[in-house]
Structures are given as structure tokens and as C-alpha cells.
Amino acid sequence: MAKGMKAIKDRMSSIKSTKKVTSAMQLVSMAKLQKYQRQIIPIKSYKNLVEQHMQHILNAAKNKQTDIDVAYFRQPKTIEKIAYIVFTSDVGLCGGYNVNVLRALREEVRNNPEVEHLFYFIGKNGAEKSGFYNLTTTFALTGRNETLTYEELTDEIVMPLMDMYAREEIDAIKIMYTDYKNPLVQTPVLTQMLPAQFENTDTTKASGEPVITADTLFEPSPNSVLTYLAPKMISTMAYIYLLESLTSESASRRMAMESANTNADQMLDNLSILYNRERQAAITQEMSEIIGGSESLN
Amino acid sequence: MSFHLKVVAIDRLLFEGDIDKMQVTTTDGQLTILPNHIPLVSVLKIAPLIIEHEGEKKYLAISGGYMSIQRHETLIVADIAEWAHEIDRDRVEEAEQRARHAIEHPLEYVDPAVAEKELQKAINRLHVFDLYHKKA
Hints:
The structure holds 2 protein chains of 2 kinds. By secondary structure, chain A is an alpha/beta fold. In chain A, 59% of the residues lie in helices and 14% in strands. Chain A has one domain (22-256): ATP synthase, F1 complex, gamma subunit (Pyruvate Kinase, Chain: A, domain 1, 3-Layer(aba) Sandwich). By secondary structure, chain B is of the alpha+beta class. The longest helix of chain B has 24 residues, at 112-135.
């Protein structure tokens, strides 16, 4: 009997040490979640400003009857090659975070079999697991998720892709990221960056006055201003999506760790009941042995 | 007379308030903007931005961006922007040396255009630093 008790004790101590790790990870991911949420706020307002201005400049440029001839805004007739920027995690133990993203991509590939898909993975997990989902990795940026700066993301991924788009080597750029809805819900979202989709209305602010009037001067020209702004816009969006994905990853990991903790507690409860029962059984047995022995002496 | 200016960079809002005049450098050259300027949209070079309000001058180092002047508001969206007092002269000098070295001793994996840009940024920061400290 003592052997069974020892085994249970060992198991309990191993569960306890695992629980220490998971609860530490839960705290860490909670802190990270808050950090990313704070980071995202100023960038969102920056994006809104750039987006708003870009829209107005486009409209103003159109009003001036200038031909907008910016390579980033070309509208391809047929779409044959699509590049995807995919945000996944570098480290595991984050629940369904990566799986959901990869599944959504597999679905996308199935729905568009006639198109060539190029995948640019950011994060180690996406690149490693892509094979299981029949996705071919064109490029992978791994191990740098948490330290990736806006400039690095722009220079290494976004700009090369935008230039490829301008040279007509690819016909569309899409970004796959995980949208952070709330601490419990994160959904993978696929959004199209290029060809750009512009709404053609609303040149006015709420006051009804145009933000950028028709007599606006462009220096040196509308085209050069737009050529400067377009990559800025796309890079900013990409960076926001990176932060959004990191937020979701932390939330997802927090959730996974929380359920790991609950499971560990449950297992410990069950095991300690089992242990007590075993101990009691051993005592009872020893007692009956002693009584049996003393009775035989009489 | 004054007008409203807002300076934003990717990570923060640097300035928001009324000013009397400002001096910027666009790709076409240096401009001094006074109140009631004609609406203008322009791309900015790596250059200092000097804001003046009630005789007090403020200096910013702008590493590229764009400017939009409208009737009620002037907006500067910078790639990277720093206040003069935030600049660490020793670090900038180091960056300048590094950039010069990269230009003089080209390596395969270093893009000369990038090094050139880094050099411009460093020179601009030093310039802004000196402007600020000469005045102060």
C-alpha cells in the first residue's frame, strides 16, 4: 500500500510544480496584454488622422481633375497572385490562437484554388505549422515578434511587398491577424490592403465644411504626396494589426493558462482524496493485522 | 494673430496648440508659415521644425513626414519627431560616425541609401540640438 501512496505523492508534487509555471505565465500574459493595449491607443489615433487625410487628399486631387497616377493605387484587372502577411505567435501554449489563424487561411486557399498564394509569416509557429495546413511559406520572420518595431516591420515586410505590388509582380496584399474583441473572444480576420478600396463620399467633417478644400495646393504634386502617404498608411495599419495580434495572443495565453490552473487544482483535489483514502486503508489494514496477531497469541 | 498646430508621430502627440509662426522644410524648400496661409499639402524633408509663439521659439527634429495646412488647423504627421531637449548629443554623434563609416566602407548587406538617410537624420538632430542650445 505504501507504494501506491508514494506514487500519488509524487504525482501531486509534479502537478504542483507545473501549476507554479502556468500561474506565473498567466500573470505574465496578463501584464503583456495590458502593455499592448496601452501601446495601441496613440497609434490608432495616428492611423485615423492619416486615413482621414488620405481620403481628403484623394478627393481633392480628383476634384482638381488631375490623373492620379500612383503605382500603389493601380487597380489590377485580374487577380492571379495574392501575398498574405500572417501574424502568428513565436512561442506556444496559447490555446487555439495559431490554429484558428491557420485554419482560416486553409479555408481561404480552398475557396480560391485558381489563385497563387504567397504567405509571409511573422512568428515561428505559423511558419512551422503551415505544412500541416497545406500552406507554403514564402518568407518567415521568426523569433522577433515582441521586439519588432514599426520601422523593422515596414522595411522588412511591408515595403518590399508594396514595391512588388507597384511592379505588378503581385496583384493583392492581404493581412491575416487576430482581432482582440474582449478578454475572452479573439477572432482571426483577413483584410485586404491593396488594391485599395476607397469610399467615394464624405469629404466633409461633421460641421459640414470640407476639411480639405478644392483650392488646396499640393507640393510638389498630388501624385508625389500620395506616393509618400500610401506606404505610410499601409505600414501603420500593418503595425496596428501586429499589436492587435500580440494582444490577442496574450489574451489567448492567459485563458489557456487559467484553464490549466483550474485543471491542476481539480486534479490535486481528486488526488488528495485518493491519497487520504489510501492512507486510511493502510492504517486500517495495519490495525487489523495487529489485532489479528494479538488474537492469535491469546 | 495665431493659428492652431498639431504635430503627431507614430507613437505620440508631440504638440497641440496655438502658434504665431513656424518654419518647415518641404521637398521644395524652406517655408515660413504664418496665419491664414493658403491650404497646402506637402511632403516634409528631414529637417528642423521651428515653432514660434509669443516670442518663444521651440525646436523639433523631424525625420520626414507630411504637412497639411487647412483653414482652421495645421497638421504635421512626422515619421519620427523629437524635441530638441530630448536629443542626446553623444548618441547622435555616435550614430553620425557609424553612418559615415558605412558610407565610406560600403558593405554588401548595408544599403547605401539607408546609411545616407541615417546620416541625414543624425546631422539634422545635431543641427536642432545646436539651435536649441545656442538660444538657451
